[in-house]
Amino acid sequence: MLLEQERLKKNKIPGLNTGIEIRKTICAICEGSSSSCGINAYIKDGRVIKVEGMTEFPQNQGTLCAKGNASRQYIYNKDRIMSPLKRKGKRGSGQFEEISWEEAYETIAEKLLSIKAETGAESVVFGAGFTKWLRPFAQRLGISFGTPNFATESSTCFYATQIAAGLTYGQWGGPDIKNSNCLMMWSANVFGTGTAGAKKLIAAIRNGLKIIEVNPAVTHLTRYADIHLGLRPGTDGALALGLANVIISEELYDQSFISKWTVGFDEYKAYVADFTPEKTETITGVAAELIIKAARLFATGGPSSIKTSASPTVHHTNGVQNHRALIALSGLTGNFDAPGGNYVVPETWLHVGTGVELRQKQFIFPRDLTDLPPRIGQEAFPLWSQFVNEAQSMWLPRQIDSGQPYPIRALVAFGYNQRMWPGNDYLIRMFDKLDLFVNVELFMTDTAKLADIVLPACTSFERSELRLYPGNHVILTQPVIEPLGQSKSDIDIIFDLARRIAPDDRLLNQGYEACLDWILEPSGLTVEKLRQHPSGMTVKDAVMPGFRKYETDGFATPSGKMEFSSTALKEAGLDPLPTYREPVLSPISAPEPAENYPLVLTTGTRLPMYMHSRTFRNEWNRRLHPDPTVMMNPEDASKRDIGIGDEVILATHRSQVKIRAILTDTLKPGIANIYHGWPEIEVNHLIDYDYLDPISGFPGFKSLLCDIRKA
Ligand SMILES: Nc1nc2c(c(=O)[nH]1)N[C@H]1C(S)=C(S)[C@@H](COP(=O)(O)OP(=O)(O)OC[C@H]3O[C@@H](n4cnc5c(=O)[nH]c(N)nc54)[C@H](O)[C@@H]3O)O[C@H]1N2
Ligand SMILES: Nc1nc2c(c(=O)[nH]1)N[C@H]1C(S)=C(S)[C@@H](COP(=O)(O)OP(=O)(O)OC[C@H]3O[C@@H](n4cnc5c(=O)[nH]c(N)nc54)[C@H](O)[C@@H]3O)O[C@H]1N2
Ligand SMILES: [Mo]
Asked: Where is 519: in which H helix or E strand?
């Protein structure tokens, strides 16, 4: 009997005789529409002793990736912050003293309220790094306090694609893969970045879905692809215009959609005429025959859809226009909001579109942003402010520096990582000018060390959060363990602060669950009901929107139509067509720097075991890829006498890093590729802080010039 009990315990079998219980939660190391996987957490004596994928969870159906599987190393990490801290030494010295929650709140509230009285609430910025789940609450807190400035990671991620779509169609839609015959995967590398979606993609490919992959690199997807278009980084716009050239010259476009539902087609057609397959080959490096073949397959092998990503096409100094050029292919071929094309489902919660109706916008904006002073970056990027309800974080260091149009004096951030910014050394210097920098963090990061006050947050296992998924699955998790040490859920911190700095916000002051019930109300769901479904519930009567909604509603653009030529861009004095411009730093546009820095550098291609800066400290993840590396073609390496695994110096005109070389044929000669976010090297020092797209303010992370030499 005893032996049997030992065996059960050792094998972590749940039950009364082992005291092991399975509780349901989700992973929040990644957050996005193909992530936040369902988890079975095995709990014994209040500790997580094992995790596995939740089989009944539609998102991941029992699978977990390398990061989720290492959850215990994330939760019980020695770097977790265990109590509120106040800085003692010089900024960045890492010297802190423990303080009580009460003292932390009082100090913060007193400072924020005095700044508000002196220079206005707009001098205070609320912010969030990659973490998304808390944003509606943090942004509302800021608005109720009186500041328009909510500055998040989305100033470098996704929102530029939303601007491109807003200008062109009003709103974009994801690929309706179920009904699609041909899918253009425009650099969305789901095998490394959204593994829960990869499984479904392979199933569709086995079912006959044709794939056109656009990617400078050969990836895991390439073996499944019918056509692979390996372009030079940053030339996406030219490639898209080249594809349009073939579609138009061979008359493969949807004439009736275009005549009825678009504006600017004639100007677009005239502009596109210049991008012959031959010329496009010269710019992009993709063979003319392949461009022709891909254009024909996309236009005639439909219904065809396009899967875009949040970053590779817009991390360029011509990012928004590149992205406009590629999404225009959907309307051009009559696939926009059509079955098997790109299906528009309005966002209901945290960037995910479902048929479950919630009050997201109404909750975040108890008052209109236009009643408040201009947001950070609004003057520099007026179109950003038209399409995005946040400040442009890339402009934050600039405004702290200049004090114009008004001073920025305090930053209250949830999980801020200075390595997100290009030229991050500039931002670090600017932190010194702030009267108060609060960072709410899980771990004592390099950025937390720069704060005046650090507040300990807890992981998804220790809190309750609401998530919606495509397919109308909804979950409201409950903590599966107590928060470690004195850490708290971000939400509790937000509500505790609200009572002190936004006492007039009656809804916030009723607490988290009351707010959730208010948000959920139109869907008929309640906190009480969701609690009865620990694995979440699929809302059966959710009403999905129909296709071709423009036929009744028009397009949400100034003309009410799809705009090949954008009214808003024209009014802003910018190119109204999806004009192609070379990246500011490219071998063609910058021949002089290119003499010393002849390689095109793309940064931030994701590694499957790392999530930005989050999982380096998990031993299991770190062992899979221990050292910072650069990928380069063997031909470029042998010219430089570089061998496999050699230490090399990767240099741009601004800075350099020491890194190991990976030699690989997956990249063409002339291109180098590195991951961002390593704690031991400063990748973003390689990039100028003002290397930004003029429309969105997004950094040109993925088209730079560099050279590599043996260390
Ligand atoms: N494991 C893991 N997953 C993640 C993340 C992570 O850090 N780790 N981050 C999440 C976030 S925030 C994001 S934004 C997404 C990104 O998701 P993805 O876009 O799917 O991933 P990336 O690896 O950034 O880029 C995809 C591809 O873009 C290619 N690429 C590089 N430069 C260019 C270019 O100039 N043009 C084109 N067309 N392609 C280019 C690269 O070769 C790469 O294969 O991933 C999310 N998922
Ligand atoms: N060179 C280069 N730079 C890039 C990119 C690139 O491709 N190349 N990509 C850009 C893109 S697309 C993105 S999305 C950004 C990445 O955006 P970042 O914000 O840099 O991403 P992370 O490092 O994941 O997260 C920031 C912090 O959040 C903390 N955190 C995690 N969970 C929680 C939580 O629940 N609560 C709180 N309070 N904190 C939490 C983490 O510990 C971490 O320190 O980087 C951008 N920067
Ligand atoms: Mo991102």
From this structure: helix 512-520
227-229 and 210-214 as β-strands: parallel, antiparallel, unpaired?
parallel
Indicate which residue's Cα is closest to atom 44 of ligand 1: 189
Query: What is the Å distance from ligand 3's center to 151 Cα?
Result: 14
Residue whose Cα lies nearest atom 39 of ligand 2: it is 415
If you take atom 6 of ligand 1, which residue's CA is the nearest one?
611
Segment (H or E) for 43: strand 38-44
- Is residue 167 pLDDT above 70, yes or no? yes
- The span from the CA of 438 to the CA of 432, in Å, is 13
Strands 473-476 and 537-538: antiparallel
Atom of ligand 1 nearest to the CA of 192: 1
| 608 upstream amide cis, omega within 30 of 0 | no
Name all residues whose Cβ lies below 6 A of ligand 2.
129-131, 153, 156-157, 311, 315, 414-415, 417, 419-420, 440-443, 445, 457, 490, 603-604, 611-614, 676-677, 683-684, 701
pLDDT in tens, 534-549: 999 999 999 999 999 9
- Domains of the chain, with CATH numbers? 85-159+349-538 (3.40.50.740), 173-343 (3.40.228.10), 591-710 (2.40.40.20)
- Single-letter code of the amino acid located at 236: D
Tell me the sheet residues that pair with 410. 124, 436
Separation CA 700–CA 584 (nearest Å): 9
pLDDT band of residue 663 (cuts 50, 70, 90) is very high
Residue 82 CA to residue 457 CA, distance in Å, equals 9
43 — phi, psi (to 5°)? -115, 130
Ligand 1 centroid–CA 313 distance in Å is: 9
pLDDT digits (tens, 9 = 90+) for 168-223: 999 999 999 999 999 999 999 989 898 888 888 999 999 999 999 999 999 999 99
